[in-house]
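Q: Hi! First time doing this. I have a protein sequence and I read that you can turn it into a structure. Is that right? Here it is:
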Amino acid sequence: MVSTHEKKTNLARLIIPSSSSSPSPSPSITSPHVIHSRSHSFVGPSPRFNPSSTPLFFLQEDDDEDEEKEPLSSDPVKIGPSDFHILRVVGQGAFGKVFLVRKKGNCFDGDGDGDGDGDGVFAMKVMRKDTIIKKNHVDYMKAERDILTKVLHPFIVQLRYSFQTNSKLYLVLDFVNGGHLFFHLYRQGIFSEDQARLYTAEIVSAVSHLHSKGIVHRDLKPENILMDSHGHVMLTDFGMSKEIDELGRSNSLCGTVEYMAPEILLAKGHNKDADWWSVGILLYEMLTGKAPFTHTNRKKLQEKIIKEKVKLPPFLTSEAHSLLKGSFSRLLCTQPHSEDLAILIKMQNELFL
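A: Yes, that's right. Below is the predicted 3D structure, encoded as C-alpha cells:
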C-alpha cells in the first residue's frame, strides 16, 4: 500500500501541459408518485481487488496555497485562475465546487443563448488535491480529464481548459444553462412519450460516441444530464468513467445504485453493456416518474435489481409499452446482444428524421 507521503513525493514530479479548447403535452392521466429520496453516486474497488496507487496525473504538491500564482503548466500560453472572473457558485460536491465564470477579455459576442463560449461564460470545476488523495480517487480524477479531452459530440459537455495550482485542479467546461434533466423530471412528474423519445435518442447518440472511443460512462442518471437552452440533452460528470477495450472488463463497484447493472452489483466484471442498462432505466423513469427498482434500504434495493423483472405500469399507452418491451427491453438485461444494440442505434437514428 502506498503511503500518502510517498504519493505526494511522486506527485511533485508530475506536470503536464494544460489543455486548450477543442475545435469547436403532458399526459391527461394523474402523474405517478415521484421518488424524492435518491442514492448518491459512489465508487470503490471490488473487495477482490486492491485500490490503485497511481499518482494523480497533473499534480504538484508544496506548501504554497497562493491560488493566484501562475498555473503549473509548460504550455507557452498559460491559462490559470486569474484569467477568469468568478460570477457565482453553481454547484458543490465531495471534492470541491463548480463556479460560473467569465473569461477575462471576452466581450459578449455570442448569439445570446448562454451555451458554449461565445460570451466567455464557462463552468469551472475546482477540486482540492488533498481531498482527492485522501479519498483515494486519484485514478478517477485522472480519467475524467483524459476522457474529456478525447470526446467531441453535440450531446456531451465539452472541456475547454484544464490547469492546476499547488493545491487545486481546475476543469473549465461549457456552461449549459437549462438545468439538470432531474430538475425537469421532478417538476413535470413524467415526460410525454415524444419528450422521452427525443431525450433518449440523444442520450443513445452520446453514449454510442463514448463507446466508439472505448469509454464507458458508468454513472448515467438524470442528475448527470444537462439541458441546453434549445432543449437538447448534454451528458456531463465523467468522474466515474473509464476506458475499457473491446474485450476488457472492469471490476470496480461504481455508479448510483438505482441505475447500476446487475453485473456491477454482482462484481462479475462489467463493460459498456452496463451503460445500456442505465439508458433503459432512464427511459423507464422518464415515462413513469421513478426508476423501476426502488427501496429505502440499499441492500434490499440491490437484491431487487439482481432478482426481479421490470414491471410496466398500466397507465402507459400501448405505444410506450411497445417501446419498452421492444428495442429498449433489450437494455434491461445483464448481457445485451450486439444485434439488439444495432436495432437500438437504428431506432435512435430514425427518431431524428
